[in-house]
């Protein structure tokens, strides 16, 4: 049951819905694509926008410069008169950078010109970053504005950490965490970058998969060759590349990278029972995407395959002639992007070496092979008995009128490993996205209902932990 | 031993070397890329250029219109006073269209701005089409000009057939052959589009591989998906595509397409002995391209694998994210271009169906598959006892001072099947290209020595068959 101040803050939040939406639209217009160097200026503008918004709420806010994109760090000591040592201190993490919007021709509206339209669940906002992650950061910003409106300050000590490289593997983050350790050493970190179990059904993500992301570059021969004059004698790098990638998994879906499963624990009977109890409908989950045949390791349930088993996915492949019609060429270069989601127990460094070995052992003597490593992050697991988890479950039940469920996350949030590793922080993963938000795809959207419910849950959470 | 007129024609040819080279440069400037619709006008210009050049030699010359690019047909009855029935009638075939020049950034000079430079064998001309096929057609045009200069006419009845779609599988040619059958019914067809055995070592190609060329388009799912949220459950079309293409061959290099080898005859002991006698140096052949490990079926010699065994080469592949850095996507579309060189006995239609089955049988139920067929042509074999072959061997020995060798051709010239099928003509494949001409690659070149020697051999051939 919220106390009076919390109720006031909720009312202030509700009356500011239009302003919250307009604020999000403003932020979404900035094309802060971290992966593309020509948008570096936009990334900075998106960061500065947030600094201004937090400064307006009395936060000490600024940018930590890095070799890449800057990091927003803002802190507020909490209610006036509260001694620093007494207050709970929460760290709110998010990211202002977004995925590349390509392929542009598949967007119904331009990716950086947000539109609000009607959908099956009411209004939604469509833009790149609508949910991942600006919309979700907005659930915190709106909550902080509401507390500022009714109390002049958040009810606890709050530090906000919003980086600009999450989508490219956060290469510049760890040194910032080390340098700002004193300022960032909170009692818990809160990350809003995950999904609800379903619309109206809140969940807390208690584990996240890690990731390694590489690019395989193969070269066979000095130049492209005529496939008639050389076919049957000259090696073909695209036949080679496809043969190698084609062997990534056996017929049971088990990944063949050497040492891949070293350290991977089987789920407990308890975990399996809890997942079965969720009633995950894989047919509907896949059917919504025009799919029907589950991939992944045979004999394991969908939650297990999505949350507790590692993967190997080819994210892109190219080489040879890709234009109209025919070109009878044996190409000399082939490339592929490959990423693996990791589970607790797997060492990202060892997985990278396994990939290197996997490719190298399949190469003829005259092939040239380069492996570019774009990202490495181990999986994280949140302690199941954490009091913060219990607190979050309580406020979610208050807001949504039903118990929240504990799920695993299929996606990776490498910063969770960094926050644990550098700052010793456990992370609470409480998010308000939905599976059909089309994250990383064209026409990414965020239900406005989820935006406002998420902000309300955050208002409640701040009030709850202050007591 | 050439007669007086042949000697005079050779002298006239030799004195016109500069003019021959300048004429070729002029023709090479026209970017007659048949595969790219935006060059349709250039294709027509290249055809009209040849019509004018032949008309200037007294040929009745014009264009046969088609749904695609026009075909140049030009005829000359031979010496004045010669009765039509008496004269030998030769058909000269070539093509004015050229391969796409991409990738442009690898050319040392622009592909349609011919340059003459010095090389290990004297001067060479570099441009797209320098040898394939404008340079080789020029060996005939120069020979005809020389005979015109000294005799006012070629010494035999000559019909010239130069099409504009050879590089895209000659889709419009057969109806022209049918429609113009009377005009094109010669005693033999001569095709200059093949290579010499080596520099200074002439050869006659007595067999040509056929070809099928397809594009495989796969779709899995309605949209691109986030690889964390969906990895382990959703099928990945690029993992699927690479697995399928990776199974094209077994570890002995044998192609796994169903029915692929039906009708393929083993070479005779005689053929194998003749090939062994050639002393084909595969290490040098591959070494010149920066390769060292032979591909193709284990346990067979290089000439056998290049001339008498079919192949399956992936010519291009693409799908997913191909830009800078990372995008953690499970793509919904993947594409590949695949072509097979065929040998006598294989039915192109059946090979296409075999490819279709090969892919279809490896698809999950929710995959969508389209097969685009860009070209189909069976292999051809030239009768080894043909008197035309004997005549060609004689003039090549005169010109080059050594016996010519009989080789197979790795590449396909589908028109050879058409000329046989529609007009009943055997084809003499006498060409002057070299293996390092970089046909179908950037920096395609033609040795000027080969241009002029080829023209001289053709002058001799015309004189020889007139007797």
From TrEMBL, chains A, B:
Q: Which InterPro entries match?
A: Cyt/Met_Dipeptidase (IPR051458), Peptidase_M20 (IPR002933), Peptidase_M20_dimer (IPR011650)
Q: What are the Peptidase M20 dimerisation domain coordinates in residue numbering?
A: 208-366
Which residues constitute the signal peptide according to the record?
none
Q: Report the GO molecular function annotations.
A: dipeptidase activity
EC annotation from Swiss-Prot or TrEMBL = 3.4.13.-
- Keyword match Cell cycle: no
What keywords would UniProt list here? Dipeptidase, Hydrolase, Metal-binding, Protease
Q: What domain of life?
A: Bacteria
NCBIfam families in the record, alphabetically? PRK07907.1, PRK08201.1, PRK09104.1
Q: Which PANTHER family match?
A: BETA-ALA-HIS DIPEPTIDASE, SUCCINYL-DIAMINOPIMELATE DESUCCINYLASE
Protein name, please? Dipeptidase
Q: Which organism is it from?
A: Teichococcus globiformis
């Amino acid at each position: 049951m919220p106390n009076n101040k919390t109720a006031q803050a909720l009312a202030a939040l509700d009356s500011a819905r239009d302003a919250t939406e307009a604020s999000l639209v403003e932020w979404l217009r900035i094309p802060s694509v971290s992966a593309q160097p020509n948008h570096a200026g936009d990334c900075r503008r998106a960061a500065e926008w947030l600094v201004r918004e937090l400064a307006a709420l009395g936060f000490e806010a600024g940018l930590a410069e890095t070799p890449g994109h800057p990091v927003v760090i803002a802190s507020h000591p909490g209610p006036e008169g509260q001694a620093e040592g007494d207050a709970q201190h929460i760290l709110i993490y998010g990211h202002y950078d977004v995925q590349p919007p390509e392929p542009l021709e598949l967007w119904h509206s331009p990716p950086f010109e947000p539109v609000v339209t009607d959908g099956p669940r009411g209004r939604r906002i469509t833009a790149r970053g609508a949910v991942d992650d600006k919309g979700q950061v907005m659930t915190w910003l709106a909550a902080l504005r509401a507390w500022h409106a009714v109390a002049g300050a958040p009810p606890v000590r709050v530090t906000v950490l919003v980086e600009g490289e999450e989508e490219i593997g956060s290469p510049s983050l760890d040194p910032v965490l080390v340098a700002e350790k004193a300022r960032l050493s909170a009692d818990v970190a809160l990350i809003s970058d995950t999904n609800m179990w379903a619309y109206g059904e809140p969940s807390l993500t208690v584990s996240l998969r890690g990731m390694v992301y590489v690019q395989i570059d193969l070269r066979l021969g000095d130049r492209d060759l005529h496939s008639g004059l050389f076919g049957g004698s000259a090696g073909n790098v695209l036949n080679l590349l496809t043969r190698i990638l084609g062997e990534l998994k056996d017929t049971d879906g088990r990944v063949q990278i050497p040492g891949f499963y070293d350290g991977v624990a089987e789920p407990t009977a308890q975990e399996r029972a809890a997942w079965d109890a969720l009633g995950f409908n894989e047919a509907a989950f896949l059917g919504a995407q025009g799919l029907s045949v589950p991939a992944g390791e045979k004999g394991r349930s969908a939650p297990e395959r999505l949350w507790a088993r590692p993967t190997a996915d080819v994210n892109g492949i190219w080489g040879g002639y890709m234009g109209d019609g025919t070109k009878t060429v044996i190409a000399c270069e082939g490339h592929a992007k490959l990423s693996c989601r990791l589970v607790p127990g797997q060492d990202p460094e060892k997985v990278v070496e396994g990939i290197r070995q996997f490719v190298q052992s399949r190469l003829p003597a005259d092939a040239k092979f380069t492996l570019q490593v774009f990202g490495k992050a181990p999986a994280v697991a949140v302690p199941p008995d954490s009091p913060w988890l219990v607190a979050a479950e309580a406020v979610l039940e208050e807001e949504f009128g039903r118990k929240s469920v504990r799920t695993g996350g299929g996606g990776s949030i490498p910063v969770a490993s960094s926050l644990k590793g550098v700052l010793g922080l456990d992370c609470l993963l409480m998010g308000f996205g939905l599976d059909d938000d089309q994250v990383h795809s064209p026409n990414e959207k965020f239900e406005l209902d989820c935006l406002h419910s998420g902000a309300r849950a955050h208002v409640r959470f701040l009030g709850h932990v202050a007591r």
